[in-house]
Design goal:
By secondary structure, the chain is an alpha+beta fold. The chain is built from three helices and six strands, in the order H-H-E-E-E-E-E-H-E. It has helices at about 5-10, 20-30, 85-90; strands spanning about 40-45, 55, 60-65, 70-75, 80, 95-100. Strands 1-6-3-4 form a four-stranded antiparallel sheet, with no helix packed on it. Helix 1 (about 5-10) packs across helix 2. The radius of gyration is 14 Å and the shape is globular. About 15% of the residues are buried.
Length: about 100
């Protein structure tokens, strides 16, 4: 993907929709693209938050730890912004995100 495509992906996120294009370009340039296969985990509940993620393609499950094991509480897909709570509030991850496709 080009920087312009990354800028457009950021612009689709409501939090960034009104950010100036030059600032979005800087954010896109500083971002890192990662690829996950089905069943790979982006991060675990309780981990330190060091990044937020935008789902550009595919889907992922949002899981929380329970005494009976992981519980799926949501599914996210294209243009979902995940991991933001941890970095904005400086708290450990509140859920696990696992790619499903």
């Amino acid at each position: 993907m080009s920087i312009q495509e990354d800028v457009e992906a950021l612009r689709r996120i409501p939090l960034f929709a009104k950010v100036e294009p030059a600032k979005l370009k800087l954010m896109a340039f500083a971002s890192e693209r990662a690829y996950y296969d089905a069943d790979e985990t982006l991060f675990h509940q309780g981990d330190s938050a060091d990044a937020a993620y935008i789902i550009l393609d595919g889907r992922a499950d949002v899981l929380i730890d329970t005494p009976g094991g992981p519980l799926k509480v949501a599914e996210v897909s294209r243009d979902a912004f995940v991991g933001d709570i941890g970095i904005l509030c400086d708290i450990p991850r509140t859920a696990t995100i696992r790619a499903t496709e």
